[in-house]
């Protein structure tokens, strides 16, 4: 996870060890029509994708006769619809495999069967976006099924260098594509060819090259940050002589649970947390001055964490 705050903190606390937050991406081969029936990588693909927290759907927009498309034509609407259909059909198979309700079924099993029946009906009617069509309570009820259609999706459009330069036209094409499919989801666009070229350049050369296309940073960094936001994640920071580190937690996570991300014992033995916004920490040049100026807040276990807090946990024995 790119984080320009970490080197600044490292300089203040005089450490060379920097550990950024991590977002893992799994590059899985493209899905083809009838994958749910075993075509292409079929169920092997679907088994992999069930384990992820979110789906990044890379959609081709660029035209290049030297790069073969599986359908022999570039049609982003059809490509997106193929993926959505195959994921929904895979979910339908999962839902239909669920056993019928027993006479002595628990309240939870009865509730799950109601939602399963509703989801089957929605998919059969061509309504594939279960994440939007089911209530939060309904989604929790069947979360054990790990349905693909319930995962948040980010659409990543792969464009040409020319399309990158024609920003207005490209953004209109993406908007029209999403509107035609009635999809309201996060999206980004990038040029894979350009990304490969940029990686061979030095930091300053990268910035100048990207600037010529109206970009502030490489596509991978933008993707990571967007994925973080999509999943509702934030980072809190720890800064000491041993290391400077960013820790990943859900937004508004209680301080006691955040402590447990560092070590499970910290949850059990939590006393308090000293917190200060990153900007103030940098402004006063570290913990000593921050405490002397009364800028450090001592908070309890139920304090809701915010992104960019520099934190020091007090743990009992």
UniProtKB/TrEMBL annotation:
Protein name: GTP-binding protein YchF
Record-linked InterPro entries: ATPase_YchF/OLA1, Beta-grasp_dom_sf, G_OBG, GTP-bd, P-loop_NTPase, TGS-like, TGS-like_dom_sf, YchF_C
Span of domain OBG-type G: 1-210
CC terms in the record's Gene Ontology section: cytoplasm
Keywords assigned by UniProt, alphabetized: ATP-binding, Magnesium, Metal-binding, Nucleotide-binding
GO molecular function: ATP binding; ATP hydrolysis activity; GTP binding; metal ion binding
One Pfam family from the record: YchF-GTPase_C
Superkingdom of origin organism: Bacteria
